[in-house]
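seq/struct pair 1
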Amino acid sequence: MAALAEEQTEVAVKLEPEGPPTLLPPQAGDGAGEGGGGTTNNGPNGGGGNVAAASSSAGGDGGTPKPSVAVSAVAPAGAATVPAAAPEAGAPHDRQTLLAVLQFLRQSNLREAEEALRREARLLEEAVAGTGVPGEADGAGAEAASALLSRVTASAPGPAATDPPGTGASGAAVVSGLATGPAAPGKVGSVAVEDQPDVSAVLSAYNQQGDPTMYEEYYSGLKHFIECSLDCHRAELSQLFYPLFVHMYLELVYNQHENEAKSFFEKFHGDQECYYQDDLRVLSSLTKKEHMKGNETMLDFRTSKFVLRISRDSYQLLKRHLQEKQNNQIWNIVQEHLYIDIFDGMPRSKQQIDAMVGSLAGEAKREANKSKVFFGLLKEPEIEVPLDDEDEEGENEEGKPKKKKPKKDSIGSKSKKQDPNAPPQNRIPLPELKDSDKLDKIMNMKETTKRVRLGPDCLPSICFYTFLNAYQGLTAVDVTDDSSLIAGGFADSTVRVWSVTPKKLRSVKQAADLSLIDKESDDVLERIMDEKTASELKILYGHSGPVYGASFSPDRNYLLSSSEDGTVRLWSLQTFTCLVGYKGHNYPVWDTQFSPYGYYFVSGGHDRVARLWATDHYQPLRIFAGHLADVNCTRFHPNSNYVATGSADRTVRLWDVLNGNCVRIFTGHKGPIHSLTFSPNGRFLATGATDGRVLLWDIGHGLMVGELKGHTDTVCSLRFSRDGEILASGSMDNTVRLWDAVKAFEDLETDDFTTATGHINLPENSQELLLGTYMTKSTPVVHLHFTRRNLVLAAGAYSPQ
């Protein structure tokens, strides 16, 4: 009991010069005891696992804990704070921090903790000869202390928590933050200051004055430790190399140790994974403090915590090593700039880790892929009128029963059985079907009966549309759902529309001529068209920069185009004129796409956000912000409730149209993503990137389920066949490849363990899924499309060698 009486309280505080106060989510610790109500009860062997503004813990040996004050950075979620060494004697910054904490404890009526800290502070003061009267601070120090105080006191402290006897801790004062998410053992809240993407605030975090000559030694020491650790831990801990390398380099540059930074870069940049080479090239150009201000890569890296997913065993090993070596410089970076997502269970293998890493901000946090996604299809509206017509038609043909049966099935199965994973029908408002839409659906059903059933033994034919002499530079292509029109966007700012059926393109007559037409006649829709204007090609002028995206509306009345001029334009295919210019993006708009139900459309561009629009609103309805680089491609889910975006930050995100939230983040590509497509049943997503790989994702579980290797250049286009049995991919390597989608998605491991830890097991060889490779002479494949009868249409511009 005498030992218990001697215990003191340990206080961990983070002081950052700038930025607004915020409450962070709870931080995960490693204490052996259970955490609850914002306090941590650590067992005798759980020392060092608590993260709190003020808490206490017994030493690892179960003996009497020594009094200590730890002034250290607050750890990112999933990482536990380790008390830093005693502050360097006499530093005014440390004295201001102590004063601020004392003042805060006094105002919060935490007398015991204040007394304990005062005794500790005096010890520190006496240890330094001639540093001034204890507790005295200069004017600037007092201001800083009161500023800190005013920010910290914004949150009311929790009650002083006293541990039960025998736990080896007593009288711990805890300042609890807002608890978000499920509480785990050893989790407590903490008060911290949020990052601001303001340049000066962002850069000030690098103002730590570590010994510049020691950086190489620190990094080499950690590298040696990781390389000598067991194989099962080595793969996981190797993920630390890249983010630590970048932050240590930036810290050296910011503190103007240019020669040390150059030497550090040259010595270690060769150790980084090959897929980070582009980022390292940008980094190597930052050699002076001035270069860092306003540099996007630098701000991305600083404002978004790099996420590492590591097993608890590997993390404990790393923590023990850094504590033993007292390697505070590296530990500070781990706490300040990394988010360590700890999971229980077996460490992942090198192959499993390599499949998932490579994005600009590391892997996705597991929490990011937990929310429910309604990936099922909406109930098809019942169209009763056409079935009578079908009967009449059927009588004239011998194949009547054969024709009618599948039709009844396809209508019945969609309308009577509600998909359990489908969103509520009225979750988002969708446009009502017009008569012309119903007629189109009937035509679609007729075509469906003649659809070829594809499979490994029955591959589709491919019809390739080559744009010859496209000196204007073909930059985008789209084909209508019924495969009657093709649109091309060009670098000379034009959009060109071709009819690929014998039916020519005609404009509506002039107003004077329209007034003469009998509006009651049955063929009024034919009469309003002007035969004099009939031609196979129409050119649409209006953009003032290259056109990078094009999309037809499902009813074929409109065409969208997005351009380098920052606008999205809506064109009428009745008059072939521009109806609206949507201005919201400030920079080039790389892609745009209509919803499968029309009315809504999405656009993505260089300003790193995707925007959701409605054709009758001149401002966006939703802004999807979260990517760290350009949004290169956008795609609507078949049920129109979600939008997928692929970005140059090497991630794919899925956004909920209803509330604008990001509900999935997929990492694994090693280059910017340029193509996306959903499977017809809405369950899966396929993505293609500059790394030449096609990745397959299970949307419901938020998991990667396949990797298709074969292309040697950027995958520009992806499309599933109408029944989802075959995936076609088109690339800049001048090939179209067909993959067996049924085989790729069968026997998926989507148990709870896989979902929780990301232990995905991809087949070693994707060649057995490859059904065919089709070369063009010298034409990169820009666009792919499956007709309603499962014929593949491909398009690209011939590029002479």
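seq/struct pair 2
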Amino acid sequence: MLSNLFENGTESARVAWSRLPHSDGGELDEAGLLSTTTSDRNGVESLDYEVIENYAYREEQAQRGRLFVIYNAAVKWFFALLIGIGTGLAAVFINISVENFAGWKFALIFNIIQKSYLAGCLIYILINLALVFSSAYIITQFAPAAAGSGIPEIKGYLNGVDIHGILLFRTLIGKIFGSIGSVGGGLALGKEGPLVHTGACIASLLGQGGSTKYHLSSRWLQGFKSDRDRRDLVTCGCAAGVAAAFRAPVGGVLFALEEVTSWWRSQLMWRVFFTSAIVAVVVRVAMGWCKSGNCGHFGSGGFIIWDISDGQEDYSFEELLPMALIGVIGGLLGALFNQLTIYVTRWRRNYLHKKGNRVKIYEACLISVLTSIISFGLPLLRNCSPCPDSDPGSEIECPRAPGVDGNYVNFYCSKDKEYNDLATIFFNTQDDAIRNLFSAKTIHEFSARSLLTFLVMFYTLAVVTFGTAVPAGQFVPGIMIGSTYGRLVGIFTVNHYKKLNIEEGTYALLGAASFLGGSMRMTVSLCVIMVEITNNLKFLPLIMLVLLISKAVGDVFNEGLYEEQARLKGIPLLESRPKYEMRKRTAREACGNQKVLSLPRVIKVADVVSILRSNEHNGFPVIDHTRNGEPLVIGLMLRSHLLVLLHSKIDFQHSPLPCHSTGESRAIRPNFSEFAKPVSSKGISIDDIYLSSDDLEMYIDLAPFLNPSPYVVPEDMSLTKVYNLFRQLGLRHLFVVPRASRVMGVITRKDLLIEEETESSATMELQSTSVRGQRHERENGADIERPLLNGLLVQRQR
């Protein structure tokens, strides 16, 4: 019987798969697409963003009125409010923990080194080691999906790829506490990227009502179970994460729009903007409460992270050349950083991490010890410099008191009025080091030798640290690297032009923007973020200039950091533009020569079980026959829906004949929400379902549960048009069929401009260019012939 289920056709997943450099079992064809034979690619599965308009969906929609539409919109805004509050509180908790760990650590070390530098070095290494060990242990033993920044995974999710485990409750907990350990332990990474992942997890968990595994769920929050609604919530969470990390609400909205989302609409823009605004309010209120000393070191720096509004007032035409040079350097160093992280990540995955979780913990601890030795030991090798003459109106003190954050750190200096410029940026938190590099009225605070030493060492540490088994963001390390060489260029500019109005901190700001642009390839969102975190609108044109230059230079060598990391992780992203080689190929050619596995309308339960066990396909065309005996494609049946039907058993029937949808079984059929798969989960497996011998002999009529209107393309359509259609609509399956024999009609723009029902019938009539078929065929109940399915083009996971 199973042999009758195979129809002539083709099926392939090559179109969606980008070139994966770590795949050893595949071969690249002339279009640069990977051809593989394995069906399970690192647990990656596509999401169902398409609305399945089956019988259950239409019945559910028919029961909903205008009041439900208003209620649904209000609930979405309420969820946006909850996402903003939750992400803001999570960011405040992470910041309070990190800054207090760092503050207590440096205060203790400065007190110890007054007596013994060796004892201070050992205590410093042990504290950092303990924090990093706790982070690595949490990640390896509790939440493996929380490693890294999480932005490539979230970008893949919003592109239509579901990676198991990335949005679970344990991932959220691992991300929060792992970030505290890794950032507080002084590693060359930041907490901004993990905060984006944290916001996405909070949004996803709120959308599904919490976590049922840990008994932290609420029924009244379980309002959004479809992948489309979850996608919108996760988008709000991503924007909230950036807004909380940088206290940049507008930058968070633009980051979600430019970097992570693949589908955008105006209604979503309003909710994302509202969520980011709520985050800004929550963070500002928390910082206002913390300014009285309730939160230790958190809140003392103000809402603007690196305020340089009192810096350089203006710039001259002569400065454009060194500023453009900063853009070129940023593009080169950013592209080099991306390439080095690819090599290190590939080596780490292929050799080091194959040895188990214990090796991952050892690696993180070894990098922690190395980072601590470098940050403590290198300033000891640098001679101290005398303090400059202080300006009577300046608030900058030289040297700073031990354990107090700021410029001019006295570290291993024999005299009181001396400071160690290398310790000012090395033996400090990254936020304070960036604040020192951005600072104005501190010309010649750092020597060129110290900046070059720090640049080489920190750049190397950032490359080695990125990819370890801890939560790791790359925003702040990128700002550190860029501001270092930017200030270095500023030193040469000040010495060359001999002008008093040139500030080295201005060039540090431009350097930070250039490196992020050269590495991450963001432009608009990054430009706004840099303006918001520095409170300096005067240099917006210069930031735009260096971003454009650095991105153009970096694009010559490789793709952005997140795109490269997504490819290494095996996440099949569909980029905004198809490859040029696709213009020369058709949909028929992309399908290959494989056969399509289709199902009859009424199928035996034993056959369904056999089909699901024998392959990993996630979509099956359903074939019926007309009264003349000709095959007819009536829709698409999803694997997950078949599993739900097998699990519930309420739609089993004894007869092999089709049943009518108006029968008595309508009331007990599963509703539309029961077909939804839990987020970031594999859902029901065929191995989890028990069926008796009597059950296997029964039948299922698939007509009420299939998607009766799947998207279809002709076999000779160019692959470029197929790609654009697939990506812009967020599809998972796309039928490839032969040319149709006739046209039922042509829909134009005017046919879609539906007037209000109260309008007269005369206004409803629009000039039609449609070619109508014979009406008497439909009136007599004749079946409309549809072309026989010739091929099925399946994206990512079949």
